[in-house]
Amino acid sequence: MKILLPVDGSELSLHEVRFALRLVAQGLQASFLLANAQEPASLYEIVKAPDAEVLENVSHAAGEHLLASAEALLHDAGIAYEHEVVTGDPAHAMLELIERHGCDMVIMGTHGLGVLRTAFQGSVAQMLVQSSPVPVLLVKPPEEASTEEEAEAGADEGA
Q1: What pLDDT shows up at residue 132?
Q2: Please, what sign has the CA dihedral across residues 9, 12, 15, 19?
Q3: Which residues pair with 87 in a beta bridge?
């Protein structure tokens, strides 16, 4: 079974990687595709660094950096994995990776944006649950992380 693990470099995304490792420890036979989606260059970035190759290299390096901790967890556990950094809308990029790599499942988290922010911004998790051709397993954040995020979301919505 090949499982897509979207990683954004946050502690929450590492929590999801650890969850996947627990499944393997309990007998799941799986390999993993770690993926990070980088936003396309902004107009400002394009104007300041008009060389597209420079922007692509910087974006790719940032994605590689964000994958490093997750790669270390899988490497230390002796689990087979591939990794890929893509550019574009995260939900659409993950859907393309599922197809291109023949993934059988996605394991990802819900990052608790709060009802108001999710309504305006949408959610990568929601989009994948609705559009993915394979099952999407959503991992709840640890209690302490969800409480902190709810407090931050409330502060953001009040601003």
Answers
A1: 95
A2: negative
A3: 38
Q: What is the pLDDT of residue 62?
A: 85
- Residue 75 CA, chain-centre distance (Å), reads 18
pLDDT at 40: 75
The one-letter amino acid at 139: V
The CA–CA distances, whole Å, from 79 to 17, 36, 72, 74 equal: 11, 19, 10, 5
- Give me the amino acid identity at 147: T
Task: Please name the helix (run of DSSP H) or strand (run of DSSP E) that holds residue 48, with its range, or none.
Answer: helix 43-48
CA 73 – CA 61 distance, rounded (Å)? 19
Q: What is the pLDDT of residue 45?
A: 64
d(CA 11, CA 14): 5
Residue 47, pLDDT score: 65
Cα 62 from Cα 42, distance rounded (Å): 15
Instruction: Phi first, then psi: give them for residue 105, nearest 5 degrees.
Output: -165, 160
- DSSP code string of 77-120: HT--EEEEEEES-HHHHHHHHHHHHT-SEEEEE-----HHHHHH
How far apart CA 39 and CA 28 sit, in angstroms, is 33
- Below-50 pLDDT ranges, the chain: 113-121, 146-147, 157, 159
Nearest to 127, CA basis, from 3, 2, 13, 6: 6
